[in-house]
Specification:
It contains no helices and 15 strands. It is mainly beta. The two termini are 16 Å apart. The relative contact order is 0.32.
């Protein structure tokens, strides 16, 4: 089983399976990452035999709750990541875009990465009532990966 994730990075924004927003080229773009080493069969009590994907070491993870008081989406505007991080959507959904580039949607159970700590940034529009975990990578170092596409994973 392979998982592809989004990456938001200064230079690249990943959409689809695992998407990432990156800052490699001083311009946020979309990349599709294959996480390495990928899913492994667990031998840990309580999850023996289950497929487990390590998302790397984290530093000071936070649980975020978007209020649903007025039912309006939370538009965070154009911004950069404070720290390279994993974002795990527990409830609701988020639409992520980069200037003059691709966009992607992440729904419940989805994961994407942000690494665009400089550059053009990205915009996140969270559905009212969304809940997510933001988990900065320890020492700002993203998990092991291979870039498999310079566009959304769902476009593959």
């Amino acid at each position: 089983m392979q998982l592809y994730l989004f990456l938001l990075t200064f230079g690249a924004l990943v959409c689809g399976g695992t998407n990432t927003v990156s800052d490699d080229k001083r311009h946020s773009t979309v990349e599709c990452w294959r996480i390495e080493p990928g899913f492994q069969v667990s031998n840990v009590p309580g999850i023996v035999g289950d497929q487990v994907l390590q998302l790397g070491s984290v530093d000071n993870a936070s649980l975020v709750n978007i209020p649903e008081d007025d039912g309006k989406p939370n538009n965070e505007g154009l911004h950069n990541a404070v720290h390279p991080a994993s974002i795990v959507v527990l409830a609701g959904r988020v639409d992520v875009t980069v200037p003059d580039a691709d966009c992607f949607t992440v729904e419940v159970g989805g994961v994407y990465f942000i690494t665009d700590v400089a550059g053009t940034g990205h915009q996140s529009v969270w559905e009212a009532g969304s809940v997510f975990i933001i988990a900065p990578f320890a020492n700002g170092v993203p998990i092991g990966h291979t870039i498999v596409a310079n566009h959304a994973c769902e476009d593959m």
